[in-house]
Amino acid sequence: NLNDNDAYCIASALKHNTNLRLLDLENNGLTHRGWDALRKAEFDTTSLNSAADSNHTCLIINSNYREINGDPGSGIPYQPLAVRQKKIYLMLASRHRVGSNVQFSDGVPVEFLPDMLSLIHRYSECHFGHAISDDFGSVVDPLSIV
Question: Who contacts 135 (Cβ-Cβ below 8 Å, separation ≥6)?
């Protein structure tokens, strides 16, 4: 029977552990605080760098938890690179909704911008016509680089 303190310890470990692929936390005493800690380890939306550095390998199974690293129904984790790309895209899309990504580009090296724009374009083309959901279940509109 795990509690929020256990969740904090697990979240701390998940930030650096890329070997764990599946974590079943069904039927434990976690509150929203514990789940928030796990969510942040799995998808830290503080910055693009923190999202890119989040855990992309561990699939957390719990009926009350919206998973982003894999398919909880089958217990199969997604490919880490695809998860990382999705998280970056979701961050850019959510920021696009509130205005512009330009205000969040401070500190991003200019040399990185062409790669970032290319990533947005490729991900949009790949998922155009498919529902893409953010970590709160909202459908994300396709982004444009123009």
Answer: 39, 43, 45, 66, 68, 90
Q: What residues have CB less than 8 Å from 141, skipping those under 6 apart? A: 93, 96, 97
Query: With the CA atoms of 133, 139, 145 and 146 taken in that order, what torsion angle do they form, in degrees rounded to the nearest 10?
Result: 180
Report d(CA 35, CA 64) in Å as an integer. Answer: 9
- Kindly give the pairing relationship between strand 76-77 and strand 70-71: antiparallel
Pairing between β-strand 70-71 and β-strand 22-24 as defined by DSSP bridges: unpaired
pLDDT at 136: 46
Assign 3-state DSSP to the chain and report helix, strand, coil percentages, each to 5: 45, 10, 45
Please tell me the distance from the alpha carbon of residue 17 to that of residue 21, in angstroms, as a whole number: 10
Q: What is the mean pLDDT of the chain?
A: 76
pLDDT digits 0-9 by tens, 91-128: 777 776 666 555 555 566 767 777 777 776 676 666 55
Q: Is 139 helix (H, G, I), strand (E, B) or coil?
A: strand
Query: What pTM was estimated for this model as a whole?
Result: 0.67
Which residues, at least 6 apart from 97, have a Cβ–Cβ distance to it below 8 Å? 141
**93: number of Cβ within 10 Å:** 21
